[in-house]
Amino acid sequence: MSKKNIVSIEDRIPKLKQARKKKANRRLIFYLSIFFFLISIIVYLQSPLSHIKTIAVNGNTYVTDEEIIESSNLTTDTNIWTINRAETEQLINKNPILESVKVSRKLPWTIDIHVKEQQIIGYIRNETAYKPVLGNGEILNVTNGTFNGEAPLIYGFDDEEYLHRMAEELKELPGSIRNVISEIHWIPTDENKNTVLLYMNDGYLVKGTIRDFAEKMEVYPSIVAQLDPEEKGIIHIGVGIYFESFNQEEDEDMTEIEGIQDNEESTESE
Fold first, then answer.
1. How far is CA 67 from CA 11, 61, 134, 240, in A?
2. Residues 6 or more apart whose Cβ sits within 8 Å of residue 16
3. Distance from C-alpha of 72 to C-alpha of 158, rounded to nearest angstrom
4. How far is 177 from 121, CA to CA, in rounded Å?
5. Do 84 and 75 meet the contact criterion of CB atoms below 8 Å apart?
6. Burial category of 138 from C-beta neighbours within 10 Å (exposed 0-12, middle 13-18, buried 19 and up)
7. Measured distance CA(245)–CA(242) in Å, rounded
8. For 58-96, what is each residue's pLDDT tens digit?
9. Which pTM was predicted?
10. Tens-digit pLDDT profile for residues 134-170
11. Residue 182 DSSP symbol
12. SS3 117
């Protein structure tokens, strides 16, 4: 029979004690690490290190960063982890010019506020001031504040129904064309309550109707491109499209706009 190494109990006891000691030390280090980690979290949450340092606002044009931050009730003394984002979004979204608000955290110290604004499609005379009109036809009752961007002045719309219709059409109109409009006057007649007269920034007048206004005005750049820039007049975009010069005689003052007239007539017939 082969000989086997025989280890006495006396020799094994020191090794067992050493292994148990290492195991106990590792366990102690683990528990101490968790303890100090929890202490660090508590200290962090109670210290200025967890406070907001930056509030970033984006997506706004008409409302200032300061107005949005003030309405959020967030300050540099606010703990970034105690923010109720849904509640903060509701507070900010009380501003009627805002369509939507999203609040998010960007660690370690930044709050990001992204807003989407309603379109301001014009300004209407109200008592002694011009007040902004939103794309849904609502008139903002503001007494101060600065609104950036360009929008036409709106006159004569004393009927809310027609103002809402006009606002919806202006909302659909590309901004590049809407910004060329200086003034919009509602001039209803017994035959047509939808008649409007526009004063353009390039010197032309446009006479048309509220119905399908956005669709018809989209061809405005093409119409102007066919006209002599030195000759101003009225561009009619109602039933058919034609140009009426200020300088021509009454019996020959109407010029059809080539290439667009036929398209317009076919659209009306549909």
1. 79, 12, 18, 47
2. none
3. 36
4. 12
5. no
6. middle
7. 10
8. 999 888 999 999 999 999 889 998 899 999 999 999 998
9. 0.64
10. 888 888 876 544 454 578 999 999 899 999 999 999 9
11. E
12. strand
